[in-house]
Amino acid sequence: MDLATLEAMNARVSQQSQFVGLLRDAIRRNVIGQDHLVDRVLIALLADGHILLEGVPGLAKTLLVKTVAAAIEAPFSRIQFTPDLLPADLVGTLIYNPAAMDFRVHKGPIFASIVLADEVNRAPAKVQSALLEAMQERQVTIGDATHKLDPLFLVLATQNPIEQEGTYPLPEAQVDRFMLKVLVGYPSRPEERQIIDLAAGGEMPVVSPVVSPQTILEARQSVRQIYVDDKVKDYVLDLVAATRRPADYGLPQLAPLIAFGASPRAGIYLVQSARARAFLSGRAYVAPEDVKDLAPDILRHRVIPSFEAEAEELTSDQLVARILEHVDVP
Asked: Are residues 185 and 64 in the same domain?
């Protein structure tokens, strides 16, 4: 790509991404801190990928999702996953109408722009499969009819890392359908003081819409056009390949510690999310730092530690960190 074309694209992206500041300000009125989480949710929104949030209760995961939906004026639904949930409770069902002597479609909460799947690991496999199929296919079949989901459709699923009794952990192959897996940590002491002051003030601030769903859809089109240099693509391929064949990248000690490396989705999602991160920065090109910054959230649920790694108490995050340290950045 020549310099003039890149400069023109930069100017266009800089203009189109002006709403990002307004969106962040709207979110911060209700959500104190959690900048990393907010950034990842915006990246998932712009890169058209779903996100899995893992953290203990009370870290504003639900509040953040509701705030984002309100700020972009998008239909929002929250599904509390429980062991007695059925697939029909999620996607909908056919209801018999005695007056007309026929069946009508009753759509479930999956038919929204932004769907919060709360504690997704508490529902049985059939319900999880129904959700993950809808995420992948962007459509739901009820009876004999297939119904398209909202073009903006985004699933944010949460998992509680504690209280594993009575839960149904998502299979590794199913978790792969999430673009990002983000670990949500505790706020800092100053942030927690602000949270206490905000809660003590009574009602939470009302979030007014600052951007329309159509603007987000147009931004997604721009994100897909952001320039990715061949060297950056090679860096992505090297990172993914190093999770499968670490010895080829000077990390023979990792070979017995990784049972399964990242799938091809990892490379696709690394490029898509890096483009979204560049858009958030007002750039029309992807920098290697975009890929390196997002790699832990893309790879942590795709690199499966072996029994030997678990015996040494090594996590997938630690394995990914070693790979990031050793693979050369262009």
From this structure: yes
Q: Is 221 domain-assigned?
A: no
**The length of the chain, given as a count of residues:** 330
Q: Is residue 304 part of a domain?
A: yes
pLDDT per residue over 22-55, tens digit each? 999 889 888 888 889 999 999 999 999 999 998 8
Identify the domain containing residue 182 by its residue range.
32-198
Please choose, from the candidates 45, 65, 68, the residue with its C-alpha nearest in 3D space to the C-alpha of residue 53.
65
pLDDT per position as a tens digit, 208-223: 889 999 999 999 999 9
Residue 238's domain is classified under what CATH number? 1.10.8.80
- This prediction's pTM: 0.90
Structural domain includes residue 67 = yes
CA distance 154 to 159: 17
> Are residue 161 and residue 307 in the same domain, yes or no?
no
Q: Is residue 16 part of a domain?
A: no
Give the C-alpha distances (Å, rounded to integers) separating 178 from 41, 99, 262, 273: 12, 43, 13, 12
